Structures are given as C-alpha cells and as structure tokens.
Amino acid sequence: MRQAFICTTCGTQHEESEAPPARCVICDDERQYVPPSGQAWTTLSRLRKSHSAIFKDESGVIAIGTSPSFGIGQRALLVRTPQGNILWDCISLIDDTMVEIIKGLGGIKAIAISHPHYYTTMLEWSRAFGGVPIYLHEKDSKWILRKGPEIALWSSETKEISPGVTLIRVGGHYPGGAAMHWEGGSGGKGALFAGDLLQVVADRKFLGFMWSYPNFIPLGQKVVKAIEERVSPWKFDKIYGAFWDRVIEVDAKRVVAESVARHIELLSREAD
Questions:
Q1: Is residue 83 part of a domain?
Q2: 272 in a domain, yes or no?
Q3: What is the CATH number of the domain that holds 70?
Q4: CB neighbours (10 Å) of residue 3?
Q5: Three-state SS across the chain?
Q6: What pTM was estimated for this model as a whole?
Q7: What's the pLDDT score for residue 182?
C-alpha cells in the first residue's frame, strides 16, 4: 500500500510510495543530521496512535505542539487576527480532534512556514481546512518533498498574506527563510514570528544566528547583518521563536541589535 512516509528525525512527510524512501534529503543536509541509529520512518496513522497534541496560550497566541516531542520539537502558532487565523510554522501531527478544536477557534485562513525544517505534514494541514494556501518562499522550493496545488510560492522580499500580516524573507539559515510580521501583535506594538532564523535562545535575553543548530555552524557577519537590515524597517516589540516559551516579551528590536552585535563581536574576537 502506498503511504506518505514521515522522517522521524525532522518530521517531514514525503511523497507517497510503496516502501519508505532510502533517505531523507533534509536530514542528509549539513543543517540537519541522521542519528547514529540510522534513518527511520513513520506514518501519520502511526503517529496518531503514539503521540497527542498540546494546546497552550502562549503570550497571546495559541501554541500547538506534540507529546511526546517529535522530530525537531518545534510548536506551531495559531495567530488569531480579525481577518482570519494564520497558522505559523507546522508540526507533523494532525488529527480529527485537533481540527475540531482549531475550527472552534475560528479555523485557519492560511499557513505560512519559515523554512524547510518545519514543512512537516503541511499538505495534510491545508486539506483539513479546505485546501487553504501554504506560503513558502520559492528560494527553498527544492526542499518541498511532497507537492500539491495548495502550495503558494512567493518570490519577492516581502509578501502581505492578510491585512497587517506580512512575510519577510530574512534568509540566513535557508536562503528563502521567512519571518512573519503581525502589525496587531503585542497589543498593537507589533510582533515578529521568527522560527529559528532569529533563534530565541534559552535565557530569552538574546537571539542566536546559525547555519546549522545541531552541528553548531554559525552564520557569518555579512549574513547576520543582512538579517538585521531586513527586519529593521518593521515595528515590533515581541519576538516569537520556534520552541515552547521561547518569546522575547518586550523591547525586541533592541534585542535584535544587541544580539547581532554580540554575534559579530564573538566571531571576530582575538585569541586569548
């Protein structure tokens, strides 16, 4: 029987096949990894038996995650705007109960994903809500491992996907890596949804900028400065990162500037 297999390491769903793929190209890339135990696969039907959803109000948006943690361990964020809800980033698990809960919260108008590590089961999510558009930057199109008409590629430096909600190509971790700006976020002060392109680190005081997080490869000075320049025109007081409770609650523009300066200073520091 043909199935759309899911990589257990990154959570990405692949095109339907009779047997699991030989490899996951996302995990073979140096920004990710294949664990010592080797490549392993599951399916959505199996995942629904082994995992369950977590919903949590997280600093004004609804965070949706998986228990136990699966794949990379990110959570999706349901951004509730007066013009309709946007699902920011994605997780592999989706089931009927999750769909009913989200419909009770107003459903989903569109899906926007920061970069390929979080593409997961994006087509399943879209189709559960009537085939809503999935916004991905075309610079990362080679990493789309399950294609469908729901995928809406964009190619500009910014794209407004709903009134007051704009995608910004920040690059860095992936060339098409996108952040999402919500004008109405943080009580009208503006919020930036950054995935791990501008990674909210554990102390929630700074951001990190990496080419590969698991393999500890930092981004260089020019790339990090470019990220700063691409977000600097936008007004925001809050930044949402990729993982549970990774939120810069206030004064986020200052945090961006200080984090960029710290990153560059450490890269150029002389030997002791």
A1: yes
A2: no
A3: 3.60.15.10
A4: 18
A5: CCECCEECCCCCECCCECCCCCCCHHHHCCCCCCCCCCCCEECHHHHHHHCEEEEEEECCEEEEEEECCCCCCCCEEEEEECCEEEEECCCCCCCHHHHHHHHHCCCCCEEECCCHHHCCCHHHHHHHCCCCCEEEEHHHHHHCCCCCCCEEEECCCEEEEECCEEEEECCCCCCCCEEEEECCHHHHCCEEEEECCCEECCCCCCEECEEECCCCEECCHHHHHHHHHHHCCCCCCEEEECCCCCEECCCHHHHHHHHHHHHHHHHCCCCC
A6: 0.97
A7: 98
Question: Based on the structure, what is the number of domains in the chain?
Answer: 1
Question: Stretch 198-203: mean pLDDT, rounded?
Answer: 97
Average pLDDT over residues 245-270: 97
Looking at the domain assignment, is residue 1 inside a domain? Answer: no
Provide the residue range defining the domain that includes 14.
6-267
User: Is the model's pLDDT at 23 over the cut of 90?
Assistant: yes
pLDDT digits (tens, 9 = 90+) for 202-238: 999 999 999 999 999 999 999 999 999 999 999 999 9
